[in-house]
Structure formats: C-alpha cells, structure tokens
Design goal:
Helix content: 25-40%
CATH topology of the largest domain: FAD/NAD(P)-binding domain
Mean pLDDT: 92
Distance between the termini: 54 Å
Radius of gyration: 21 Å
Number of domains: 2
Largest sheet: 8 strands, mixed
Low-confidence stretches: 1-7, 10-18
Number of strands: 18
CATH superfamily of the largest domain: FAD/NAD(P)-binding domain
Shape: globular
Number of helices: 10
Structural class: alpha/beta
CATH class of the largest domain: Alpha Beta
C-alpha cells in the first residue's frame, strides 16, 4: 500500500518494479528557511538524526522578504550580526498624501536575507543536520512518509512542517492558511542615506500597505494587498515608485523584482498526527506571520527553535512535548496575532458596500498609532 501511494508522486525509482526503500530519520524538517533551519539545528543539537529538505536550489534564493529584523531578535541570533546591511533607527508612516508621522524609537536591522538563510542552514549542518536542497516535497502520504520529487522516500518519527504559507505538510494534517496577502517588491537606488522604515497606508492598498526599507545604497520598495486586489498590484507599485522618483528620494532604475504570499489569517493548530508520526508546524506554515505588518522572521526563528526542541523531546520520550509546544506558541504570539487580526478586519470592514477606509481608520489599523493598541 505504501508503494502504491508513493508511486503517485515519485518521479523516479518507484516505477522500476523493485520498490523504493525509505530512508529513516528521527526528525524530518520540510523547508529550510529561518523556521526550518532553526528547527533542524535545535533537533540535531539535541542528538537527533535530522534530515531537512527544501525545494529551492540554494538557501535564501530567490529572496521573498522585505529583510527587516526588529531589535528584539538581533542580539540573540548570530545570523543577524553576520548578515546585517544597516541599522534602522525609526519609522515614518505616510497616511494617504499627508506629511509623515515620525516614530523616533523603532530600532532594528536590515539583513541580507539570502545570506541570513544560508548562515542558519550552515549552523544546522554544524549541529549535525543533513540539509538537502533541490529536494522538494511532492506528497506526504497518510502514514507520514515523505515523497520527494526525485523519487526518494523519507520516514521519521517527528515531522516539522516549515514549508511556508502554502505548506504541504500543513495540508496533510488539515491545517491550511486560508487568508493570504499578495506582495510585490522591487529593489531601487536610494538618492540619500536613510535609517527609517517608511510605511505607506492607503485605501488603494486593501488588506495591506506599502513600504520602503533601506539597505545601504539601495532599498526594498513593495506593496502587499488582498488576493482579490492582486491584479492591481503591479500598477500600484509602479505608481508609488514614480511618486518617490519625482520627490527625488529614489533613482529611476529597478533592480531585482520579487513577490510572494503572506499568511494573514492567524495561528493554525500547530500540532497533528499522520498515523503514529507527530507533526509540528512552524513559521508561516503555522500562520505565525503578523496579520497587519506581515513580519515573520522573528516568529520563524523562535517557533522553529521550539519545534526542534519539542521534536527532540518527543524522541526522548517526553509525551507532553507537543502540547507544550502549542502552548508556548500561543503564549509568545497569540495575543499579538489576535489583536492584529481584529485591527485588520476593522479596516477591511470599511470597504463593505463600496466604501473605503478614511485616514482615521487607516491609522487605527497600524502599529505606530495609539488606537491600534487600545482595548
């Protein structure tokens, strides 16, 4: 029966009549972004045999991130120090076409996300994890066997799903991110040095916002919107870019272009089973991205580390490790994500019956303003 299931997704090796021998591991990590690499490192450091797979050909490529890391994470992660591009001191928020509101204490770091991911993967390898790229998950069978695109099979006692907002591991246990934001970002030259994150709030960006995040001589310029508005995303970003060119803030050239999906529907149930195998979700796969800001790097690293530790605990006989993991995630992220969900839905409510949010509603839905933090 297992071979019959595997043949649905194994593109080599399973059709030659000899069958496929599944590799065995204590922990399988699917995805090698910040969450997956952190989980692999933590589990391997605790003595587990860890196999981690990722569909990308190399760590961090292509970059699908605005690359800002808040100061709360910076001192605790070596990868931040090793890959920092520049410090961030403040935030300025533009509401429609008004002058910006300045928040003078908003510290953080801009990182080179590709180098950041690579550093975390190298740390996982140094801890003993086997990290494989160009090894995407084709299917997870009902008994928890991973079918890889190259036709190989992997079985592990614990599976960590860290494979992003459209997680196949999450889907296998019925946990799916159903609310997503579509994001598009370009790299642009900065005309003058800048040490603030710029936020652009507009009724023209339903369910999201625009940003200009500096990285030395260049900056990441992007917009995120609800999936229903994604057809307007390219034009909206170009209009924002042209306005900043006219203001003399950025040059007229465009470097790299990237994009992706951001989960904004809140936390999923992060634990499940595939027959006897325990499944833990981390990072975007667990819906841990902030529904308002889209920030997810900190949550990915923290949840991945906790997932790896929980996986090791389960392997050592700690039956409570999985429920402890779920409780820790809720303690760390639950209140902030719940608040962000409420504020996001309040702003989206302004679009009903053809309406749009005004400046007051936009401010109430953003973290820089007191109304966001009101009860």
């Amino acid at each position: 029966m297992l071979l019959d299931q595997a043949r649905q997704c194994a593109f080599a090796g399973a059709n030659d009549g000899r069958g496929v021998m599944a590799e065995q591991a204590d922990v399988l990590v699917v995805g090698l972004g910040p969450a997956g690499a952190s989980a692999a490192r933590a589990a391997a450091a605790a003595g587990c045999k860890v196999i981690a797979i990722d569909r990308k050909q190399r760590a961090g490529h292509p970059v699908q991130c605005a690359e800002f890391v808040p100061s709360m994470l910076s001192p605790t992660i070596d990868a931040v120090t090793a890959t920092r591009c520049q410090p961030i001191r403040a935030m300025q928020t533009f509401v429609e076409n008004e002058e910006p509101d300045w928040q003078g204490h908003f510290p953080g770091v801009m990182v080179d996300r590709a180098a950041f991911d690579a550093h975390l993967v190298e740390s996982a390898r140094e801890a003993g994890a086997e990290c494989r790229f160009d090894a995407g998950l084709a299917m997870m069978t009902t008994d928890g066997t991973a079918c890889v695109h190259d036709g190989s099979l992997i079985r592990a006692d614990v599976i960590v799903g860290a494979d992003g907002p459209r997680s196949r591991v999450g889907k296998a246990i019925g946990q799916v991110n159903r609310e997503l934001v579509a994001a598009r970002q370009v790299t642009v030259p900065l005309s003058v040095p800048h040490q603030a994150t710029d936020i652009f709030l507009s009724a023209d960006y339903p369910g999201g916002y625009g940003w200009l995040f500096p990285r030395g001589e260049v900056a990441n310029l992007g917009i995120g919107v609800n999936l229903a508005a994604r057809d307007c995303l390219k034009a909206a970003l170009e209009a924002l870019r042209q306005s900043l060119v006219r203001e003399g803030r950025i040059g007229d050239s465009i470097g790299a272009t990237t994009g992706g999906s951001i989960p904004v529907g809140g936390m999923l149930e992060p634990i499940g089973h595939l027959e006897q195998r325990v499944v833990l979700l981390a990072g975007d796969a667990a819906g841990l991205t902030n529904p308002v800001t889209g920030a997810g790097i900190s949550a990915a690293v923290m949840s991945g580390t906790l997932a790896g530790e929980a996986a090791a605990g389960l392997r050592s006989g700690d039956a409570e490790a999985r429920t402890d993991y779920a409780e820790e995630l809720n303690d760390l992220f639950g209140a902030a994500i719940d608040r962000a969900q409420r504020r996001r839905r309040e702003v989206l409510g302004s679009y009903r019956c053809g309406g749009t949010p005004g400046e007051q509603e936009l401010r109430g839905g953003w973290i820089a303003y007191p109304d966001y933090w009101a009860a």
